[in-house]
Amino acid sequence: MSTSANDGDDHGDIFLDEDDIVEEINVDEEDLPDADEDADSDAEVFDDADDSMHIFTGHTDEVYTVACSPTDAQLVATGAGDDKGFLWKIGQGDWAFELQGHKETVSSVAFSSDGQLVASGSLDGVIQVWDISSGNLKCTLDGPGAGIEWIKWHPRGHLVLAGSEDASVWMWNADNSAFLNTFSGHASAVTCGDFTPDGKTICTGSDDASLRIWNPRTGESNHVVKGHYYHSEGLTCMTITADSSLVLTGSKDGSVHIVNIATGKVVTSLTSHTDSIECIGLSSSAPWAATGSMDQKLIIWDLQHSLTRCTCEHEEGVTCLSWLGASRFVATGCVDGKVRIWDSLSGDCVKTFVGHKHAIQSLAVSSNRSHLVSVSLDGTARAFEIDEFQ
């Protein structure tokens, strides 16, 4: 085995014996990094490399959920397996407020649209609502017979919607602690759901592989979407278009379907992923959607033509995503503990944030779009600066 070194001076051939080989590595041309990726890959050598500008370490167990206040650019809520929720502020390491009282994992946190209230939901089946200005517990909402899967606020009022592991969906008025309605019909855990942006309709998805579209006033199902033309396995995530006309759903079966909310009909299907869809999000500036999957891909879709615009490869499964405001950039959280920023026009990874030691569980963007907050199974929340991606 010989190698030649030609750098202007001819040193002749340098001969290596078999004994000199320390390790033989087969390199696929496609695996070679581009020049601009070198900076990111170098960071992998150092376990202590950390790109975050703030680390929240108040939790003592895996952190599962994060939300940023819509009105206070510094305020963040997180929930974890230590049965606690916390409010804390980006850049203010000495300030934290514990959302006390839950008996099990805090699985969901959500701010009201006016930023006045924050709700924390737990696997104990209870939701607590806190008044942010006073720091007081405003009310405790209960009813579901099992853990809270997710919490959503009405786009204009203080109505709280939550889906439970016990196949039920509940709605309350947080201003007067009043139970308003329960939505029954799913046969398994309700894994995702939301109000439409106009506030007039509710969409929920379940592990029973169905989507239900509800009338919030009557509690009746307008439509049940399931069967041959729809998902074959449980739904995992959903997002609703700004005009309240379409809902996009992702499933364990790797497919994404788009349903007309008024008619309950499947409009089109997006099929390129080969494993469970974990997250989905709509661009606010173009007719594009982003989906992340355990198949290690983020796919940007052109919704007008139901075609793939670009596929963004990751080293491990993609667990969460967030469009960065109205920009063309999408952030992803990954099982490998990295947070990446992607340009949806080119499909290029333009930034990789390191610091977390375990899988990312959730992402949120601050109201002024200057920080991205990620939470991880490593028990920390980290804030990264994203001003350059406005």
Automatic annotation (TrEMBL):
<dbReference type="InterPro" id="IPR020472">
    <property type="entry name" value="WD40_PAC1"/>
</dbReference>
<dbReference type="InterPro" id="IPR019775">
    <property type="entry name" value="WD40_repeat_CS"/>
</dbReference>
<dbReference type="GO" id="GO:0005737">
    <property type="term" value="C:cytoplasm"/>
</dbReference>
<dbReference type="InterPro" id="IPR051179">
    <property type="entry name" value="WD_repeat_multifunction"/>
</dbReference>
<feature type="repeat" description="WD">
    <location>
        <begin position="311"/>
        <end position="352"/>
    </location>
</feature>
<dbReference type="InterPro" id="IPR018391">
    <property type="entry name" value="PQQ_b-propeller_rpt"/>
</dbReference>
<keyword id="KW-0677">Repeat</keyword>
<dbReference type="InterPro" id="IPR015943">
    <property type="entry name" value="WD40/YVTN_repeat-like_dom_sf"/>
</dbReference>
<keyword id="KW-0963">Cytoplasm</keyword>
<dbReference type="Pfam" id="PF00400">
    <property type="entry name" value="WD40"/>
</dbReference>
<feature type="repeat" description="WD">
    <location>
        <begin position="56"/>
        <end position="90"/>
    </location>
</feature>
<feature type="repeat" description="WD">
    <location>
        <begin position="270"/>
        <end position="304"/>
    </location>
</feature>
<feature type="repeat" description="WD">
    <location>
        <begin position="183"/>
        <end position="224"/>
    </location>
</feature>
<dbReference type="InterPro" id="IPR011047">
    <property type="entry name" value="Quinoprotein_ADH-like_sf"/>
</dbReference>
<feature type="repeat" description="WD">
    <location>
        <begin position="99"/>
        <end position="140"/>
    </location>
</feature>
<keyword id="KW-0853">WD repeat</keyword>
<protein>
    <submittedName>
        <fullName>G-protein beta WD-40 repeat-containing protein</fullName>
    </submittedName>
</protein>
<feature type="repeat" description="WD">
    <location>
        <begin position="228"/>
        <end position="269"/>
    </location>
</feature>
<feature type="repeat" description="WD">
    <location>
        <begin position="141"/>
        <end position="182"/>
    </location>
</feature>
<feature type="repeat" description="WD">
    <location>
        <begin position="353"/>
        <end position="390"/>
    </location>
</feature>
<dbReference type="InterPro" id="IPR001680">
    <property type="entry name" value="WD40_rpt"/>
</dbReference>
